[in-house]
Amino acid sequence: MGKIEALFFDVFGTVVDWRSSVARALEAALGPRGVSADWAAMADAWRARYQPAMEEVRAGRRPFVVLDVLHRENLEAVLAEFGVGGLSAAELDALTRAWHRLDPWPDSAGGLAALRRARIVAAMSNGNIALMVNLSRHGGLVWDAILGAELAQAYKPDPLCYLRGVEALGLQPAQCMMVAAHNDDLRAARALGLATAFVRRPTEHGPRQTTDLEPAAAWDVVCDSLTELADRLS
């Protein structure tokens, strides 16, 4: 691991707890309007539209748009699915920005700070730059760079997303490590020559999560937190 100079981090699910945060935001915005719903289920439904929306871009069926646009479109669809109406455009925009205020996992800020003492730490997310800046300020997350989809104009796991990040830092793939709680993210990064670290986040999708509970391959590092990752790489 001595050759690793930069760590690229998946953010949603790996660094921040999107599900609990989005569920709270939905309840705070819609509860006072008299809406009664399973807020976690609504958050799950919103997130379930994430990959299909990005696939429209990956497949070339629509031009690249930033994730805020996709989240806003998906929100409207989810509210219709749950029978919720009557929100103004401004209210829809404000609720979409719930993704800018996701709380980090307890180990995230400290783990990133420890890792940053010796290596470059960069967000490698499908989130757009404005979203990442607000999210980082909200959670006290300090990055050396915000890379990912908007820089590459492509969504992970498109190879461009990883390779443009490597190029932006003036490095080679073998000098970079992808850190994620998702096996498919690591699989795509390894295929391009990046090192890999799997972080277990067994409640990302709630208490009945069935995916990404364990590493699906012999990743370079497997750990339970970013603080453990810092210890392992020190």
TrEMBL record:
<protein>
    <submittedName>
        <fullName>2-haloacid dehalogenase</fullName>
    </submittedName>
</protein>
<dbReference type="InterPro" id="IPR006328">
    <property type="entry name" value="2-HAD"/>
</dbReference>
<dbReference type="InterPro" id="IPR006439">
    <property type="entry name" value="HAD-SF_hydro_IA"/>
</dbReference>
<dbReference type="InterPro" id="IPR051540">
    <property type="entry name" value="S-2-haloacid_dehalogenase"/>
</dbReference>
<dbReference type="InterPro" id="IPR023214">
    <property type="entry name" value="HAD_sf"/>
</dbReference>
<dbReference type="InterPro" id="IPR036412">
    <property type="entry name" value="HAD-like_sf"/>
</dbReference>
<dbReference type="Pfam" id="PF00702">
    <property type="entry name" value="Hydrolase"/>
</dbReference>
<dbReference type="GO" id="GO:0019120">
    <property type="term" value="F:hydrolase activity, acting on acid halide bonds, in C-halide compounds"/>
</dbReference>
<keyword id="KW-0378">Hydrolase</keyword>
